[in-house]
Each structure stands twice: as structure tokens, then as C-alpha cells.
């Protein structure tokens, strides 16, 4: 599964889910900025930015089998759960889909942190 080695195969599913979640957050962020109620979404937008960053960093740490990758995944799961809850407050399609991606990532990161 790894690109140049098999050392991180144990993380591959989580790496893929983290990258997918980060992309979903970035797409949702862009769409939220164009919603008429953008002011009501300020906290959600901030969480989307944070979640995307945590997910990208988690994928990076797992990619080089970092010493604290599992601990970071645990933290990433917390942020993803928060982002899922924030997005779920809005009923437009992009927020619903993003909430689902964040929940999936939280579950995968939690499993990885075990």
C-alpha cells in the first residue's frame, strides 16, 4: 500500500481517510464562505480550518511513522468529532456531507490510536 515502502501500511486506511476529510473540510469551507448566513457559520468555519490542518498533519505523521502518530490521531479524532458536530448544525448538502466525512475520520483515527 505504501508508495516507496510497506512500513506505513498499518496506517494507510487512516491516511486516506484523513486526506479525504481534509479535502471535504476545505471544500465545505469555501462553500460556507458563500452562504448568505456566513456570520452564523463563523465558529464552524474556524473549526473547518482547524480540522483540515489536523487531518493533513495526521496523514503526514503517519506517512513517516512518527513516534507520536497514534497520539496525534487521537487528538485528530477529537477535532474531527467537533467539526462533525459543528457542520451538522447546518442542513445544506455540503455541511451534511462534511459532517459525515468528519465522523468517519474521527472513527478511523480513534481506531488507529488504539
Question: Any key phrases for this structure?
Answer:
elongated; Substrate Binding Domain Of Dnak, Chain:A, Domain 2; 114 residues; YHJQ-like; Four-helix bundle copper-binding protein; single chain; 0% strand; mainly alpha
Describe the structure.
It is a single chain. The protein has 114 residues and is mostly helical. The chain has one domain (10-112): Substrate Binding Domain Of Dnak, Chain:A, Domain 2, CATH 1.20.1270. It is 74% helix and 0% strand. The protein has helices spanning 12-33, 42-63, 69-88, 93-112. It starts with 11 loop residues before the first helix and ends with a helix. The model has no long low-confidence stretch (mean pLDDT 94). Pfam families: Csp. This is Four-helix bundle copper-binding protein.
Amino acid at each position: 500500500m505504501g508508495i516507496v515502502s510497506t512500513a506505513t501500511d498499518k496506517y494507510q486506511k487512516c491516511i486516506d481517510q484523513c486526506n479525504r476529510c481534509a479535502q471535504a473540510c476545505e471544500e465545505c469551507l469555501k462553500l460556507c464562505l458563500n452562504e448568505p448566513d456566513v456570520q452564523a457559520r463563523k465558529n464552524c468555519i474556524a473549526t473547518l480550518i482547524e480540522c483540515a490542518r489536523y487531518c493533513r498533519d495526521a496523514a503526514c505523521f503517519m506517512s513517516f511513522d512518527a513516534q507520536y502518530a497514534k497520539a496525534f490521531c487521537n487528538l485528530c479524532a477529537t477535532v474531527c468529532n467537533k467539526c462533525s458536530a459543528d457542520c451538522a448544525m447546518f442542513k445544506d448538502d455540503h455541511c451534511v456531507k462534511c459532517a459525515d466525512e468528519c465522523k468517519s475520520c474521527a472513527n478511523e483515527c480513534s481506531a488507529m490510536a488504539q
